[in-house]
Fold:
Amino acid sequence: MPSLRTCVFPCAGFGTRFFPATKVIPKEMLPLVDKPILQYGIEEALGSGLDKLIIVSSKGKDTIIDHFDRTSELERSLKERGKTDLLAEVDAVSSMVDLITVRQKEALGLGHAVLMAHDAVGDHPFAVVLPDDVILADDPCLMQMRRVFEETGRPVIALMEVSQEETSRYGIIKGEEIRDRVFRVRDMVEKPKVSPPSRFAIIGRYILPPDIFPLLEKTERGAGGEIQLTDALRELARSGEFYGYVFDGKRYDAGEKLGYLKATVDYALKHPKLGADFRAYLEGLFGDGKAAGDSRPPERRKNDRRRV
Ligand code: G1P
Structure:
């Protein structure tokens, strides 16, 4: 069994679904409570035993690399002022990981971004994490998938059941469930406009063999005029065993506004330091209005619940 220790993070997109916030700030750097979105993906990969992490970035995304670098001046200043708690928090991020970076010079799509990592990945199996897809799970999603990969030695993609109306937003698989949560994938189609082959959508976690690279090289532009990873995966699925895993966890599309807000609320409620106060605030907001900053006396609030 070839060892799995590499993970690729495509971070080169423009973040158009989050304009204007992401006009200058990379969407991967938007904070989800108190960490940038990307850090959740990095922590998931590290927690799944992957330690060679490759960022595929583009112009204007250098803050991603800076975030995981040492910040000597800041560290010195915190030390001098005796702010040991803050120093520990900053140090934990700087020493978390040494990232490898490659650039995608043209915005030609997800498949092209993954292809840009070929040299850095080498001739080994690797994982891909799309940072926008934030997954809240006790057992990291990649770890759940890794078990299927270690058992089968074959490609594994994360799956989630979506409604019929949502199928046009995702890569959708065709296949059959062979045991609890595990699908044998036969085919897939990127963002089907009509007749989706199932309601099982591909979510942004993949474990792939290096054989995907020559397939990506041959892949022509597909949906949206971009080189789609799904189109190369389709060739891989047609040529041998290929698995899908319906992960246990909750996924958020943090790359768009509503998904980001939902993720913010759920992660804030789970935050060890902020969770209790934030819950009290929300209860006030949906309850008697007290915690929502309603300055009226309670008897006037009673029959006038806020609707938000
Ligand atoms: C990408 C993939 C798509 C997948 C989705 C999951 O699409 O191409 O197959 O279902 O991620 O988030 P994107 O959302 O980047 O357009």
Remarks:
- The first strand starts at residue 6 and ends at 10.
- Residues 6-271 form a domain with the Spore Coat Polysaccharide Biosynthesis Protein SpsA; Chain A fold (CATH 3.90.550.10).
- The pocket of 1-O-phosphono-alpha-D-glucopyranose is lined by residues 110, 130, 133, 170-171, 190, 201-204, 228-230 (CB under 6 Å).
- The mean pLDDT is 93.
